[in-house]
Amino acid sequence: MLQDLPTLYKLIVLYMLDRAKFPMTNAQVSDYILEKEYTNYLSLQQTISELTEAHMVSQETIRNRTHLSITAEGRETLGFFQNLINYGIKQDIDAYFREKGYALRNEVSVLGDYYYDAKAGGYEAHLVAKDRDVSLVDMRISAPTEDIAETICNKWEEKNQKIYQYLVGELF
User: Fold this and answer.
1) β-strand 65-70 against 110-117: which pairing, if any?
2) Cα–Cα distances in Å, from 24 out to 88, 103, 136, 137?
3) Which of 73, 75, 99, 143 is exposed most, by the fewest CB atoms within 10 A?
4) Distance from C-alpha of 127 to C-alpha of 140, rounded to nearest angstrom
5) Distance CA 51, CA 76 (A)
6) How far is residue 7's CA from residue 2's CA, in Å, rounded to a whole number?
7) Nearest to 101 by CA among 3, 16, 13, 14
8) What average pLDDT is seen over the chain?
9) What is the helix (H) or strand (E) element at residue 124, kind and residue range?
C-alpha cells in the first residue's frame, strides 16, 4: 500500500469520481470516505481542495451543494497511479457503487437553484432533471420573492417525477 497518505486520499477521491460516471456531491464523497474511516473531515476537504487547484477535479456549487467531477487531467493521473490504491479499497468502492450507485445518481440528477433577476425585479428558479448527461427538463420559473423561489426549488426536488410525468402526459 502507498505510504504517502495524502496521495492515497487523492487517488481514492479520483477513483470514486471516475467510477461514479456522474458528478457526486462533496457530501456523498465525504460520507463514504468518513464512514470507511480512511481519513478525517478536514484532511478530506484539504484533499478535495488540492485536487481542484491541480485541475484534477472540477467543482460546481448549486444552492448549498458542491458537485465534484473528475477532469481529463484527473483521469490521466488516476490511470498512471491507480495501481497504488489497495485492491481491497477498490473492491469496497466498486461494491459501494453497485449497491448505491443508482440512488447516488438520482440524488444529483435533480437540480433546483434560484437567483435574483435584476431585469425582472424578482427571483428566478432554475429547475433541471437529468438522466446521465441528457437534460429531461430544464425550465425557469419567475418568483416574486426569495422565499417563494426557494420553496419552488425545494418542491422540485420532492416532486420532480410527478411534475415530469404530468408535463409528458400533457405534451405528448
Assistant:
1) unpaired
2) 22, 11, 19, 20
3) 99
4) 6
5) 13
6) 8
7) 16
8) 90
9) strand 122-131
